[in-house]
Fold this protein.
Amino acid sequence: MSALLEVRGLMKRFGGLIATNNLDLDVTEGELHALIGPNGAGKSTAIGLISGELKPDAGTIRLAGADITGAPIAARVRLGMTRSFQVTSILPEFTALENVALVEQIRAGHSFRFWREAARDRSLTDPALDMLARMGLAARAEVAARDLAHGEQRQLELAMALMTGAKLLLLDEPMAGLGATESQAMTTILAGLKRHATILLVEHDMDAVFALADRITVLVYGQAIASGPPDAIRADPAVRAAYLGEEA
Amino acid sequence: MVRRYLAALVAIALACLVPAVAAALGKPDLITLGTQIAIYAIAAAGLDLLIGYTGLSSFGHAAFFGLGGYTVGIMAFHAAGEKMFGVIPGLTEAWLVWPLAIAVSALAALAIGALSLRTTGVSFIMITLAFAEMFFFLFVSLKTYGGDDGLGFRRRNGIPGISPRDDVAFYYVCLTALVLVLALLHRVVHSRFGRVLQGMRQNPRRMEAIGLATYRYKLTAFTIAGGVAGLAGALHANLLRFVSPDMLHWTMSGDFMIMVVLGGAGTLIGPVIGAAAMVLLQSWLAQWTEHWMIVMGPILVFVVLFARRGILGLFR
């Protein structure tokens, strides 16, 4: 079993608080791996460390065998990993098409091109339109991102993440703030995504997690207390005590 | 799209009529006013690339304006007297001096930007201000070049076929420079590079997450804006045939910022309107009081509060 993402002994302290404590995590190619845990368990910190926004105090992170522990964010994206955000994170003034086309532009190489009009560059807009169609947003391509419905904005975010060509997507609570129908739609989209990319999913919506995940890692106080397939996690007494028990 | 080009052509045509109107009204100082507007508009449009497009509130833009001006002044000084350090001869030809002024300012912007852009927000505003103040005091203390009193020179930079004493011709030179700068910046903000700048203004964190190394793009924008301000400074030195540390004073940086915000940030044409509004208001109000800012201040507050895109926004 080869791990696409391999995290070993990851540590992060904020002053006296240990947000990530000796975390080991393996995400296998092709799986949807869910990272769950109560509020304050350090899920977002873990995503921040893996994506490169935060620097770990100790430990290593490997992506497809390459050590990326100290690599800048841009290098990690080039190696095939990108993240989404808990709070919807798009370019509000750009249209949906412009949002995705800009990602394609960055993927395609440097942007030190000062003359040709980017909006008329078919090599950017064509792949972007394809991606929007795949995410069910084709009809909304020319709408400013800020005017999209909340669920559509989350879909746009995913379209942007996929457009980077990422093999590994770090999804930080894609269902946050969605209504029941929108959550359903997002679950369907994520289920479809599984064929295209490996996913590390942080999510509070347990119905979605147990419906989607191939494996689940449970985080408590920055530490992984259990890791395994959904059925095993559901049955794990330590998990029930620390987490699921509180909700039941 | 077509309407925009038509509007631009009409605006250029009207600007070309300024000398004729000035002659008809018997008010030659209108030409100087028009020249001043064109020059400030160049610097403000460059600053708009930072404030309006990239989201960088640089508060030290006067440094590059002043450096461009002093390049002209110092080159004229050495052309008339002895060589700089005994080896570098002075220059008086526009086609040599102006590119040199642009290069000096762009290079300074590259250095200042390389350090300042490691910070964001208020720290960035403060550090750009601090660098500009450093240059201000540098020129105050440079007694060779007049220090506090500034540095005058006798003739404008030579342009083949144009008399250096012809104020109308110089107005057209500045107007041409403005149109060229606006056309260039228009291309830049719609290019791939411009897209990246606008993305960084809207959501810098997101831009990094999709793989952009943001620093180098911000630095390039900062350098371009610095070079544009250098050109404006060179033209301003030629207008007055005089340079002084006032060009680098922090209030000058503030004036450029006001022009951008007043006219409409993120529009390129807004800063031109802002420059015109400011120069005209100042010259009009100054007839009654030297405290013309007492009137300008409330206008600025009104525009910022009620017009999202400045004066230009009021007409959209």
Remarks:
- The two ends of chain A are 35 Å apart (CA to CA).
- The longest strand of chain A covers residues 3-14.
